[in-house]
Amino acid sequence: MTKFLVLLIGLAVAVAGVAQAQIKCWTTADGKRACGDAPPAGAKVTTVKIPPGPADAAPSAASKDAKKGPLTSAEKEQDYRKRQAEEQKAAAKADQQKQEADAKKENCERSQEALRALEGGQRIQRTDAKGERYFLEDAQREQETAKARTQAQQACG
Length: 157
Description:
13% strand, 3-stranded antiparallel sheet, elongated, 157 residues, two-stranded antiparallel ribbon, alpha+beta, 4 helices
């Protein structure tokens, strides 16, 4: 009799588990989708099965690491050195990007300053290969101004 009772309880638990793993969905009169365990009479019902719980889920990377066991001191040292190297690379990359940004900003400022000087209307003096000073003529000034504008656009754009 006790074996029968244990079998009956086990069967009831198994059936209850299967019943809990299903959800019934239907469309209501106003066109909305409703879900539950007791649909109204005459409704077209679709049954949705719930995926198995987290106990049956695939093992993650963290659980794989946990199965390996604790790290040895050599592995810890190796991980530490690896993290240090990655941090140094990241710091060097950030420093290089900062230097490039500073250089770009300086080039922009210099090109804008040269453009302002050319557009300012003052006489511009240059030195030739012999070391003699000369002043830019109007045509030369316009050419230099056009070059300065394109350089400013490239450096600041």
